[in-house]
Amino acid sequence: MLQITSGKNGGALITIEAGFPDTLDLWLEGYFRFEVTTAISSQRVQRRDLGLFLDFMQAEEGSLTREAWTPRLSQAFLSWLRGFTREDGRRRWGDKTINRITAHLKTFARWIDRFKPFPLGEPTAKLGTLPVGTGLEVDRALTPSERRRLLDAADQLPLIGGRSRDRGRFGSHQVRPVRKTYRPWRNRAIIYTLIETGMRRGAVANLKLADMKFESRLLPVAEKGGYTHAYKVSRQGVEAIRDYLEKERSDDDAHWQSAALFLPARSVASASGCLSARTISSIWSEVCAVAHVEGKSPHAARHAMGKHIIEKTGNIAAVQRQLGHKNAVYSMQYARISEKELETVLDER
User: Where is the Tyr recombinase domain positioned along the sequence (predicted)?
Assistant: First the structure.
């Protein structure tokens, strides 16, 4: 008989009588009786998650004996979760759900191993979690329409950007002057760089003029994590950067003498010779307002690039190469169909 009782100091004591079936379903009952203290609603989720594993193990091994739970079985279960799809081809469990199931499984396995070690070691010790974002995925990417409107708005900056907001001083019929700190060609080039490379805003701020390879259309930059990645950029992106270099950068460079590609205006006293990621976001927000694009961050351009490459090539490796993902799992998200796209496909019959 399996008995788990409370010890003198609140801990658990376990007794397993000879001949008693050492099975995981019985361990599960003891686990919820003596160990789990979460709310009833949370316990239901835990039971459901652990029940998935027990069902899988029963189907694979034909048994729920504790000794049959091995590290390889745990890996097989994780692979099954990742590969299980619905009739429409979509995955049954998303990455966040799989991570939750994995966490519940690891806690359960560690608890059992504390009382009676597994023959081949704690079976979930080497299970990792899947890297996931904040729920962004492909649904938060710029749409083709938003991309077009943003680039059109960026092209208007040299004509309409940076005008004084002092309507009292300048009448409604007067053309208001451009602020001294405003750099329309720089801002235009930054928008093109974000959209035409898929670069992170921090990487845009880190770009160095001397590193640019315009002939081969490569923009090498120090990424987060300290490694250097070279982004390929479209011809339009290169032209926008060259426009900035020819029309605007030299005046500011005479003051700052900075290695950065994109420079602050020389009249900005608080600047340090290079732009911050926050400034990149402010420029993006300004252009979004002109383009009437709402709810999209600079990172939406990165997602749009990943999605564009998948749609044109169907090649995960191409996404990984352009966006510099060290883990291909990040690149694989762009192969997933969005809810809106799925609805469109289903309606086009």
Answer: 137-347
In this structure, are 184 and 266 located in the same domain? yes
User: Encoding tokens for residue 14?
Assistant: 């376990």
Question: Do 147 and 265 belong to one domain?
Answer: yes
d(CA 201, CA 191): 10
Count of domains observed in the chain: 2
| Distance of alpha carbon 249 from the chain centroid | 33
Query: Token digits for 5?
Result: 């009782």
Q: What is the pLDDT of residue 220?
A: 96
Query: Are 282 and 149 part of one and the same domain?
Result: yes
Q: What pLDDT band is residue 134 in, cutting at 50, 70 and 90?
A: very low
Backbone angles phi, psi at 3, to 5 degrees: -130, 130
Res 209 pLDDT > 60: yes
The residue segments making up the domain with residue 97 are 2-115
> Which tens digit of pLDDT belongs to each residue from 24-70?
999 999 889 888 888 888 899 999 999 999 999 999 999 999 999 99
Contact 64, 23 (CB under 8 A): yes
308 close to 323: Cβ distance less than 8 angstroms: no
In this prediction the pTM is 0.59
Q: Is 216 exposed, middle or buried (0-12, 13-18, 19+ CB in 10 A)?
A: exposed
Give domain status of residue 120, yes or no.
no
**Coil, strand or helix: which one is 74?**
helix
